[in-house]
Amino acid sequence: MSTGLTPDFRPNQYRAALGAAAAHATTTAATLTDDGGHPLHRALEDLATAWRSHSTLREDFEGELLDLSRTAAAALDSHVDVLRAAVADEPPVVDPSGPQGWKSRYATR
User: Fold this and answer.
1) What is the pLDDT of residues 34-60, one digit of tens each?
2) Between the CA of residue 77 and those of 14, 32, 53, 89, 100, what are the distances in Å?
3) How far is CA 7 from CA 1, 16, 94, 97, 99, in A?
């Protein structure tokens, strides 16, 4: 409880939420890369062994899907960089009665 004489600093919940968002985006980006495999990776691998064809339609589709996955992963990586910079700019604790007090009460759903 604050006495009014000194600030009663509390953890910056907004900063914690930014950090959690960066971690989630990092994990999601990893699932979209060649190493992590895109969401249809296993299905397309099964299809490649089950379906032999002279048509390049399936391979072209897989190539386009990989390109889209890489593009999405790159966008998420850029987003992670922005989030990490935002975390670095935030103080670890805030005065709940000060102008940044809302950050001590920030809650995600």
Assistant:
1) 665 677 777 777 777 777 778 888 778
2) 21, 11, 36, 19, 28
3) 10, 20, 9, 8, 12
Write down the residue that tokens 């000194």 correspond to. Answer: 6
CA distances from 2 to 10, 11, 92, 94 (A): 11, 15, 19, 13
Query: Which residues, at least 6 apart from 17, have a Cβ–Cβ distance to it below 8 Å?
Result: 106, 108
In the chain, what is the straight-line distance between the N-terminal and C-terminal CA atoms, in Å? Answer: 27
Mark 78-106 as b/e (b = at least 16 C-beta within 10 Å): ebbeebbeebeebeebbbbeeeeeebbee
Closest alpha carbon to 10 in 69, 94, 102, 68: 94
pLDDT, one tens digit per residue, over 17-36 is 999 999 999 998 888 876 65
User: Residue range 59-64: average pLDDT?
Assistant: 82
**Unique residue bearing structure tokens 């060649």:** 34
